[in-house]
Amino acid sequence: MRVLVTGATGFVGSHLLAQLRDAGIVVRAFARPTSHTSRAEALGAEVVRGSLLDADDVRRAYEDVDAVVHAAGGGLALEPSAIFRANTETTATLVRCAPPTLRRFVLVSSLAAHGPSRPGKPATEEEPDAPRSVYGESKLEAERHADALSCPVTILRPPALYGEGEHRMDPLLDAARRGVIPMVHPGGTMSLLSGPDCAAAIVKALTTEHPSGRYYVAEPAPITRATMARTLGRRVGRPDVRVIALPPATLRAAAALAELRARMGAPLVLTRDKVRDVLCRHQACDPSRAMRELDWHPKDSFIATGRPDRNQEGAAE
Ligand SMILES: NC(=O)c1ccc[n+]([C@@H]2O[C@H](COP(=O)([O-])OP(=O)(O)OC[C@H]3O[C@@H](n4cnc5c(N)ncnc54)[C@H](OP(=O)(O)O)[C@@H]3O)[C@@H](O)[C@H]2O)c1
After folding, report:
1. Closest ligand 1 atom to the C-alpha of 86?
2. Residues 199, 141: contact at Cβ < 8 Å?
3. What is the count of structural domains for the chain?
4. How close is the Cα of 71 to the center of ligand 1, in Å?
5. Low-confidence ranges of the chain (pLDDT < 70)
6. Do 70 and 106 touch, CB atoms closer than 8 A?
7. Where are the alpha helices (DSSP H) in 148-224?
8. How many CB atoms lie within 10 A of CB 32?
9. CATH for 142
10. Which of 6, 194, 224, 279 could covalently link to 300 via disulfide, CB atoms 3.0 to 4.6 Å apart?
11. How far apart are CA 129 and CA 112, in angstroms?
12. 152 lines ligand 1 (CB under 6 A)
């Protein structure tokens, strides 16, 4: 099987390429002209370059391809149009150019496409979606484009991801090292998933017979944000870390400031749109359907990353 993988140079993509190689699946990685592809090449992928908004580039990339994993995308941008371009318009081009011989299209969407979950009730695939962020809307619209394909379509909705190569939790780790993590809704619940387990779900989506549809992929047990913070504290050798409630207005103001700084040339680290998702008190989902129909079982546990015997970072300090 030859699979066209977008987003191969990202966090999920790098874990995915390693697992596809181990499964004996041939990978063609679609990269931007500016993408750093040395790791993808080292993992055995054939790299083709182009724009996912250019139909000719995409048609060329589709040659002799059996399936697609569309993992390119993201939500950290100053303009909503850039978020829609990365998630929705790229999907629309891939859908428009898909050859009739395509055997499966796997879209890496997000729990953000659903929006907040209800207290004590992790989201299931049957519940209606009400995204709160532009990012979530862009993913939901991408899903609708994918639904229009005539081949089988698997839409995976991971929650926040963690693991080697994912740096979005770094500010929280820094705060943990200082001994205090400010956090909105510390009693709120969230699902998490490791990068390798997310990649494993994608591999299962390519190799297991299953119906088209949406699948939440997450660790089975959601945790509170306070538990997440304390786990990060243990990971950096600060089991005594204090979690303090941060007023939502403070986080919104921090995001507005971060956007302003980014417009003046600083790296973009937070946006008001990201904050819209963070402010959902509960962001939990139920992976039962994926576990059952994809025969997928996550191996990692976020809480275990803070166990003393795995506390390499803390031990080094
Ligand atoms: N990380 C999470 O917590 C999380 C949670 C839920 C869902 N997701 C979704 O999972 C997917 C993979 O996420 P990730 O964490 O691996 O992201 P990442 O590390 O930021 O990597 C993003 C990948 O997408 C590519 N990309 C971004 N914008 C693009 C565009 N406009 N055109 C073409 N390629 C583009 C990047 O290429 P370059 O190398 O050229 O930049 C990179 O390969 C994304 O769709 C994301 O929305 C992520």
Report:
1. 31
2. no
3. 1
4. 6
5. 308-317
6. yes
7. 170-178, 195-207
8. 14
9. 3.40.50.720
10. 194
11. 9
12. no
pLDDT of residue 312: 44
pLDDT the model gives residue 307? 78
Answer yes or no: are the C-beta atoms of 201 and 277 closer than 8 Å: no
pLDDT by residue (tens digit) across 257-282?
999 999 999 999 999 999 999 999 99
Q: What is the pLDDT of residue 310?
A: 58
How far, in Å, is the centroid of ligand 1 from the Cα of 87? Answer: 9
Q: For residue 87, give the ligand 1 atom closest to its CA.
A: 45
pLDDT for 174 equals 96
Count, residues in the chain: 317
Name the residue at shortest CA distance from atom 47 of ligand 1.
74
pLDDT digits (tens, 9 = 90+) for 24-80: 999 999 999 999 999 999 999 999 999 999 999 999 999 999 999 999 999 999 999
- Asked whether 14 lines ligand 1 (CB < 6 A), one says no
Domain membership of residue 173 (yes or no) is no
CA of 171 to the centre of ligand 1 (A): 19
58 occurs within a structural domain = yes
Q: Please indicate, yes or no, if residue 316 is contained in any of the structural domains.
A: no
136 Cβ closer than 6 Å to some ligand 1 atom: no
